[in-house]
Design a protein that fits this description.
The complex is a heterodimer of chains A (274) and B (261).
Chain A (H helix, E strand, L loop, with lengths): L1 H6 L4 E10 L2 E11 L4 E5 L6 H8 L7 E6 L3 E2 L5 H8 L2 E4 L11 H12 L4 H14 L15 H12 L6 E5 L7 H17 L3 E6 L2 H7 L2 E6 L2 E6 L1 H6 L3 H8 L15 H6 L4
Chain B lengths: L1 H31 L7 H13 L3 H23 L8 H39 L2 H8 L3 H39 L4 H11 L2 H29 L4 H31 L3
Helix pairs in contact in B: 1-6, 1-8, 2-6, 3-4, 3-6, 4-6, 4-7, 4-8, 4-9, 6-8, 8-9
The chains are: A alpha/beta (274), B mainly alpha (261).
The complex binds adenosine-5'-diphosphate and magnesium ion (MG).
The site of magnesium ion has 5 residues of chain A, from α2.
């Protein structure tokens, strides 16, 4: 794998990415590659900016500095509105909440991207939608409304919708969070299977370490706006650096602090009331 | 330094207001140029139904009562001058020039504007707008534009219905109850209500009010902080800002239209 990975240009190259929310620095010079055909994991504690990273990749937020190069298309951060909407057809994104359209049935949700981007005949459209629903095991739920679905089903419908137009790149935001063990297992398998069967490139952003590591080809650990470690899951498991060990072993406190930055505790309790 | 502090706060509030006005202007132009291709008419019809047809009941009931009150009050004033035949003229002019556009717009802001804000806000909070964007569909075209155009068209229609029902309500009280001659109720109305000066001007008002109210409603929904508190604040803002805008604009428009008489 290492030979071809080196010779082939990555699908996405992030170079020296900086991004702030107000005065809070979220990314402080991140470099990251997403190679074609692979499942790339981006892991890190909650609030490190994983969702923000996906929004930057989708062009919904603009970087303060740095580049996000999509192979053959250029810098996503500098694209005009029209170009952005064009490349987004090549990108499928699974939102943390599923984000199904609540005024449509499951069938219409999955049909939505097909209706706007293709001119399929109604008969053919029906078959394509059913194929996508079958792929996530929910063909039987086509007539239901989003409010009637469980959390795991919602996410699988959202997944069917995201792959409806056969994107090149799939981005998953915390796909395993808040799932019971069975739907968690189903989703883990689906991410890997879809990637290999449809020849996709996938980015999985997550803090569920074990599940994510089990399907990733390559993983990044980010914290405090920087890439803490990167490598294959096997290599990361062996990484001796204390920050990486803390995250991988799930210790509550260590080099990555448990506390949100705050003035000294003593001053807070004994100092003057502001 | 309380003085400097409040000055700074004033400055910040001013800047925030300017930024919000800028964002709402951008939204307005993006939506106005963004008539959704293909399914546009269907989406638009659905919104006309949602914000127009469903506001009908409140518009009809309010129009009826306001017309009836106008009939009563007008009669009690006019009868003192022995001019109760002019009741039709009085009811019609008050409704067509002022009451129908203004009251219908206020009701519209409360009934439809708040609903639009809450709906768009909830779509934002549940990431539906973001996911639409990532599917490659511009929510400005798909969600915002049809609602803006629907408000633009529904408002004048609702205003016309309000005025018509109000005139009937005035007749109900004036003619059927208080005994004004039916022929003179309609006759004075026909003789004095001028199509261009009164009806068209009233319609111009309602088009402007419809535009402003729906613009405020969609902007508040699109721009809110996506939490439950944010949605409730934005809904309130829609009703308050729309009402103030309608009343303020009504004075300006009236001064422009009828000020020289
Ligand atoms: N709309 C927003 N406005 C301001 N700050 C935000 C907003 N969205 C997220 N943040 C902040 O950015 C940081 C990263 O958020 P996020 O990308 O959602 O983290 P993660 O997905 O890794 O949990 C968080 O500290 C959050 O408070
Ligand atoms: Mg997140």
């Amino acid at each position: 794998m290492s030979q071809s990975a080196v010779s082939e240009e990555p699908l996405i190259k992030i170079r020296n990415l900086h991004f702030s929310r107000g005065s809070r620095k979220i990314f402080n010079g991140i470099n990251l590659d997403v190679r074609r055909g692979q499942v790339t994991a981006v892991m890190g504690p909650s609030g490190t900016g994983k969702t923000t990273l996906l929004r930057l990749l989708g062009g919904q937020l603009k970087p303060d500095q740095g580049e996000i190069i999509l192979a053959g298309e250029g810098d996503i951060g500098r694209m005009r509105r029209k170009a952005l909407f064009r490349i987004r057809r090549q990108i499928g994104m699974l939102f943390q909440s599923g984000a199904l359209f609540t005024d449509m049935t499951v069938f219409e949700n999955v049909a939505f991207p097909l209706r706007v981007h293709t001119t399929l005949h109604e008969r053919l459209l029906h078959d394509v939608v059913m194929m996508k629903l079958e792929a996530v095991g929910l063909r039987g739920a086509a007539a239901l409304r989003p409010a009637e679905l469980s959390g795991g089903m919602t996410r699988r419908v959202a997944l069917a919708r995201a792959i409806a137009t056969d994107p090149q790149l799939m981005m998953y935001d915390e796909p395993f969070v808040g799932q019971d063990p069975i739907s968690m297992g189903v989703l883990v398998q689906l991410v890997r299977r879809l990637n290999d069967a449809l020849g996709l490139t996938s980015i999985v952003v997550s803090h569920d370490l074990a599940e994510t590591m089990s399907i990733a080809d390559y993983a990044y650990v980010i914290a405090d706006g920087e890439v803490l470690a990167e490598g294959t899951p096997q290599a990361l498991q062996q990484d001796p650096a204390p920050e990486v060990r803390q995250f991988i072993e799930g210790l509550p406190d260590g080099p990555v602090p448990f506390h949100y930055p705050a003035p000294p505790y003593r001053d807070e309790l004994l100092g003057e009331v502001l | 330094m309380i003085g400097l502090d409040s000055l700074a706060r004033l400055g910040r509030a001013g800047l925030a207001l300017m930024a919000a006005l800028g964002r709402s202007g951008v939204l307005f132009f993006q939506a106005v140029w963004g008539w959704p291709s293909g399914q546009g008419v269907k989406l638009w019809m659905r919104q006309v139904h949602f914000i127009g047809v469903l506001s009908l009941i409140i518009i009809v009931v309010s129009g009826l009562f306001i017309g009836m009150v106008l009939g009563l009050q007008g009669y009690s004033i006019l009868v003192g001058f022995g001019a109760e035949q002019a009741l039709g003229q009085m009811v019609a002019l008050s409704l067509v020039r002022e009451l129908a556009p203004v009251v219908a717009a206020l009701l519209f802001a409360g009934r439809a504007g708040s609903a639009v804000t809450a709906e768009i806000g909830l779509m934002k909070a549940t990431e539906q707008l973001s996911s639409m964007e990532m599917i490659g569909v511009d929510p400005m075209r798909r969600i915002i534009a049809p609602r803006l155009y629907a408000g633009f068209v529904a408002m004048p229609l609702l205003t016309a219905i309000f005025a018509a029902v109000g005139i009937l309500g005035g007749m109900l009280v004036g003619v059927d109850w208080l005994g004004v001659d039916e022929g003179s109720y309609w006759g004075t109305m026909q003789a004095t209500v001028d199509f261009r000066a009164d009806v068209i001007n009233g319609m111009i008002k309602s088009v402007i009010f419809g535009l402003v109210v729906t613009w405020i409603a969609v902007f508040q929904g699109y721009d809110l902080v996506p939490t439950s508190e944010g949605i409730s604040r934005a809904t309130t803002k829609t009703v308050v800002y729309s009402s103030l805008a309608v009343l303020g604009l009504d004075f300006i428009l009236t001064a422009l239209m009828f000020g020289r008489i």
